[in-house]
Amino acid sequence: MTTLAITDLHVEVDTPEGTVKQILTGVDLTVESGTTHAIMGPNGSGKSTLSYAIAGHPKYRVTQGSITLDGEDLLAMTVDERARAGVFLAMQYPVEVPGVSTSNFLRTAATAVRGEPPKLRHWIKEVKSAMAQLEIDPAFAERSVNEGFSGGEKKRQEVLQLELLKPKIAVLDETDSGLDVDALRVVSDGVNRYQQDNHGGVLLITHYTRILRYIRPEFVHVFVGGRIVESGGPELADELDANGYVRFAQAAV
Ligand code: ADP
Ligand code: MG
Ligand code: MG
């Protein structure tokens, strides 16, 4: 059993204009292994900021509150230490890494997270089979990480990493954005496989309810104005689908 516990999290960032912007205004959330939580909120509400704070992006400054993983202070850990501890972030805008092949990148990441290089024969099989299930062309293994990939191809790469790195807690920031229906199904199947095979905890950040037809969260949280304003079950997503965020946006001011 693994528990990611976020308490009263406040985060701010220095803006390019030289001012300080408070983005997270008191997030409380607990994610346990084997469960799926959906965070749903309008654009600009601070969802990506929450994911960056969990992963340890240096720009996003925690000014109050805590994040722990099984009681260990995650905020005291470097980005690498967090990954080794079992926290994974699929970024909303995956970065391109020119000159580094996808296969090298994956092996390096797996070595870092597992503490030793994966056995080559087994590893090659593992990568091939994960790529096939995600309907990724084998030729992508030799291409530079995400370089020139379409939005949908980048999202598949994030799920490929997820399946190979097998984290304890996975934060998926809009992994559904920009996917057509077929890609959405392939990507969702991958997330579900990861969770079932590893008893992983999933924090699924999205602003569309359609992914929730494929990935079924036990908990749905409405995120407005830098914090969770309401939590419930899947029925909350149905309400958002029907009525949008208006009721919650009013509650947040
Ligand atoms: P979401 O993911 O919900 O769309 P974000 O976390 O990306 O929201 O952003 C929340 C708010 O904080 C937005 O208004 C955004 O413009 C602002 N913001 C995020 N990062 C920065 C930054 N580095 N500098 C200035 N403003 C930022
Ligand atoms: Mg956004
Ligand atoms: Mg975002």
Keyword list:
binds magnesium ion, binds adenosine-5'-diphosphate, ATP-binding, 8 helices, alpha/beta, ABC_transporter-like_ATP-bd, Rossmann fold, Fe-S cluster assembly ATPase SufC, 253 residues
Q: How are the elements arranged and paired?
A:
Layout: E1 3-14, E2 20-32, E3 36-40, H1 47-55, E4 61-69, E5 72-73, H2 79-85, E6 87-90, E7 97-101, H3 102-114, H4 120-133, E8 144-145, H5 151-165, E9 169-173, H6 181-198, E10 201-206, E11 219-224, E12 227-232, H7 234-243, H8 246-252
Parallel strand pairs: 3-10, 3-11, 6-9, 9-10
Antiparallel strand pairs: 1-2, 1-4, 4-5, 7-8, 11-12
Helix pairs in contact: 5-6
Residues 13, 15, 21, 23, 41, 43-49, 59 line the site of adenosine-5'-diphosphate (ADP).
